[in-house]
Give the backbone structure.
Amino acid sequence: MKYADEYIGRILCALLGRSISQQAGSPATAGNILFIKFWGMGSIILTAPAVQKVRQKFPQAKLHYLTFETNREVLEVLGIADNIITIKLSNPFKFNIDTLKLIKKLRQVNFDIVYDFEFFTYYSALINRFIKPKFSTGFDNRKNKRSRLFTHTVGFNDHIHTQNNFLDLVSGSNIPSLHLGEQAQPEPETKSVLANKPYIVINPNASKMAYERRLPAAYFVKLIDELNAAGKYKLVLTGSHEEINYVSAIYQKLKSKEHVLDLAGKLNVNELFSL
């Protein structure tokens, strides 16, 4: 999908982006607002202050959030959207059919504003273009032409925190505090396992869309061995169900496992948030 987004997305952007005219400012009122963020559970969490900022500006609007089905539970715990819309990652043929169905469904909502939180992908920008909102804003990263697909763009700043970039996208200035729902409290099982000793959480993984960002497993083995030898902390390894084997391979290569917990695939989102 990464390569399809890069090459097919670039062509579609060139064909569809020319008729979009840049607009200044933002609407004074809005009934339906859509946020788009597909990749990166951590990044989705960092969008929460920006979504809350929009909620403050448009308290009467219904907030929709579009993401992959695998991220649904994260958004449910965050509790920042009134409606969570998802699409499943599947084989290319089915995914394309599901995308067309999704676009048809989204067009029926008649969105007033769309905020695309993705940094580089054409896929999210093209969905925005096809559903034809009255106002849309996305990042202009100066590395591709996706900015053509929005009515308004904000430059992505590599020198500030990602959360601040999201706030810039929605024209926020002050960072509101992030309030998780009541259900996102430490689970009893997690409390008992990690009681009475400081701990460090290590996630040695990366998104399957960007495995090139993942450091070699040997680096994590060395890091964990050195931290474990100091004897000051418990060490917790995390990962999704799909990453169980990769994390287990790192765990098995450790010199000592006495203070190391391999919880990859064993935590739900509530428990992961509690860490």
